[in-house]
Amino acid sequence: MKDHLFEKMYECTKKPYQKYFKRNKPWEIKKGDLLDYPVDTLGFSLGTFLYKNHFDIQEKLEDHDIIHVLTNTGISVPEEIGMQYYLLGNGKTSLYLFLVLLSGTFFYPKHIKYFFQQYIKGKRAHSFYYLNFSKMLDMPIQAIQKTFNI
Question: For residue 53, how many other CB atoms are within 10 A of its CB?
Answer without folding.
Answer: 11
